[in-house]
């Protein structure tokens, strides 16, 4: 039975409830859209001269300035509206008013003041953020609310302790953004690969990109200019390291253009010692990004890489560094084998110098990291010795076969997923057939 009839004050209270619910819905929409908008996105919208983007960029730069006031206002709107409904319901239906108010709060407030606006903001984050940013910016500038929010921020900081100065966007987030951009057809796959290369470039060290010592083409200081020039032309290189007889004691670099000039001037029989230029030496642990800047500033294109004991570990060129960014550069003078060849049916033939990270990217695998950088180094570590040609092993879901072994060096490795191969782990090569007896 009804406890009373509606009065004019009840209608006024219900009208106020509607206003509070609308305000709560708008603030809930603003909270979701603003917290989902990154600073990078806000700056991009500002560059596009979108309406409300300037206020949006200022808000997301310091989210603590708007988050506490918005949450406080949402809480006030919802609690006050629920209380007012309880008062009206108590006057209308008596003791059942509390139950009516509870049902109203759970269903109406949740659906219309929480779920509906927040879900719309999730599906339309850009529109919601741009629309709500000017209103939120005006609200947080209101002096009493700003004073209260500053007090709440101080209390929150006191409870949380010192804040960490973490980067707003990490490398992994940038890589994920590039992957999503490809899926959404915002950028091309080549652009994604370049973004990945640029981000990973800063973590790459010289040892990972250098030409190792056994692959270096060097000449002795006492060799005549004409012979050294022939060596350079045969190898297709414009610069050759020069040493007195031991590669660990590189004296300098012989430039092909200097040798050609000396040959034309009739000095082809002189020793190359007289025509070398100073060499640049870098440790194998130097970051390639630092080395590239150094090469640009000091204007040199080749450096000798030394290990921790001062011995020659290899050499690195400016082309090697650029290839880390744009991929393999092959010209008409390059005679090297391709680093990766497809053999069909999911099998690859890769250079033993291919890095483990590159192979993981190619096959979406998870080969282990360690003291090695290359696929060949991984095989040495797994076997604990120099594998015989044709010897194979299964490592973390991949079947690796030492395809070509020359002396103590692994040249190429065949790779396929282990599930596609029935050979047992670390299977030894089959012995040759015995000769037939006459």
The amount of helix comes to 40-55%
Major pleated sheet? 5 strands, antiparallel
Over the alpha carbons, how many angstroms does the gyration radius reach? 35 Å
Number of domains: 4
State the distance separating the first and last CA atoms. Answer: 117 Å
**Which structural class best describes the helix and strand composition?**
alpha+beta
Proportion of residues in β-strands: 5-15%
Number of helices: 15
What is the chain-wise order of helices and strands?
Answer: HHHHHHHHHEEHEEHEEHEEHEEHHEEE
- Spans of at least 5 consecutive residues whose pLDDT stays below 50 are 421-438
The neighbouring-strand order within the major sheet is 9-10-13-12-11
Q: What is the β-strand count? A: 13
Mean pLDDT: 81
Brief summary of the model shown:
This protein is an alpha+beta fold and 438 residues long. It has helices spanning 8-35, 39-47, 53-61, 64-93, 97-123, 125-140, 143-160, 171-183, 189-201, 225-235, 256-264, 288-298, 318-326, 356-363, 375-383; strands spanning 211-212, 219-220, 239-243, 252-255, 276-277, 281-283, 302-306, 312-317, 340-344, 347-351, 392-395, 398-406, 409-417. The protein has 15 helices and 13 strands.
Topology readout:
Elements: H1 8-35, H2 39-47, H3 53-61, H4 64-93, H5 97-123, H6 125-140, H7 143-160, H8 171-183, H9 189-201, E1 211-212, E2 219-220, H10 225-235, E3 239-243, E4 252-255, H11 256-264, E5 276-277, E6 281-283, H12 288-298, E7 302-306, E8 312-317, H13 318-326, E9 340-344, E10 347-351, H14 356-363, H15 375-383, E11 392-395, E12 398-406, E13 409-417
Parallel strand pairs: 2-3, 6-7
Antiparallel strand pairs: 1-8, 3-4, 4-5, 7-8, 9-10, 10-13, 11-12, 12-13
Helix pairs in contact: 1-4, 1-5, 1-6, 2-3, 3-6, 4-5, 4-6, 4-7, 5-6, 8-9, 10-11
């Amino acid at each position: 039975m009804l406890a009373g009839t509606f009065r004019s004050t009840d209608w006024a209270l219900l009208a106020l409830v509607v206003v509070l619910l609308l305000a709560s819905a708008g603030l809930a929409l603003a909270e979701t859209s603003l917290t989902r908008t990154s600073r990078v996105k806000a700056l991009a919208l500002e560059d596009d001269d979108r309406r409300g983007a300037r206020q949006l960029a200022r808000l997301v730069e310091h989210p603590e300035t708007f988050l506490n006031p918005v949450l406080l206002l949402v809480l006030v709107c919802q609690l006050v509206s629920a209380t007012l409904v309880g008062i009206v319901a108590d006057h209308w239906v008596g003791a059942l008013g509390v139950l009516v108010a509870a049902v109203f709060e759970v269903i109406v407030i949740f659906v219309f003041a929480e779920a509906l606006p927040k879900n719309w903001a999730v599906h339309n984050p850009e529109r919601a953020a741009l629309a709500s940013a000017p209103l939120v910016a005006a609200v947080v500038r209101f002096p009493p609310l700003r004073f209260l929010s500053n007090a709440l921020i101080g209390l929150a900081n006191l409870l949380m302790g010192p804040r960490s100065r973490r980067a707003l966007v990490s490398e992994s987030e940038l890589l994920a953004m590039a992957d999503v951009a490809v899926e959404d057809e915002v950028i091309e796959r080549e652009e994604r690969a370049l973004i990945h290369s640029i981000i990973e470039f800063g973590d790459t060290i010289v040892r990972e990109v250098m030409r190792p010592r056994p692959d270096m083409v060097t000449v002795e200081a006492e060799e005549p200019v004409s012979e050294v020039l022939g060596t350079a032309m045969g190898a297709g290189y414009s610069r050759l390291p020069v040493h007195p007889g031991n590669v660990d004691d590189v004296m300098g670099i012989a430039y092909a253009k200097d040798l050609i000039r000396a040959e034309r001037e009739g000095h082809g029989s002189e020793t190359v010692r007289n025509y070398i230029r100073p060499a640049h030496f870098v440790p194998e642990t130097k970051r390639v990004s630092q080395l590239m800047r150094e090469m640009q500033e000091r204007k040199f294109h080749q450096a000798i890489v030394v290990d921790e004991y001062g011995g020659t570990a290899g050499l690195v060129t400016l082309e090697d560094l650029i290839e880390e960014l744009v991929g393999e550069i092959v010209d008409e003078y390059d005679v090297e084998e391709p680093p990766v060849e497809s053999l069909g049916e999911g099998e690859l033939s890769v250079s033993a110098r291919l890095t483990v990270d590159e192979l993981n990217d190619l096959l979406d695998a998870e080969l282990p990291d360690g003291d090695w950088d290359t696929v060949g180094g991984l095989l040495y570590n797994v076997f604990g010795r120099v594998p015989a040609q044709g010897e194979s092993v299964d490592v973390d879901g991949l079947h690796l076969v030492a395809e070509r072994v020359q002396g103590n060096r692994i040249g190429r490795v065949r790779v396929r997923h282990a599930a596609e191969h029935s050979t047992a782990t670390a299977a030894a090569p089959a012995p040759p057939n015995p000769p037939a007896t006459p």
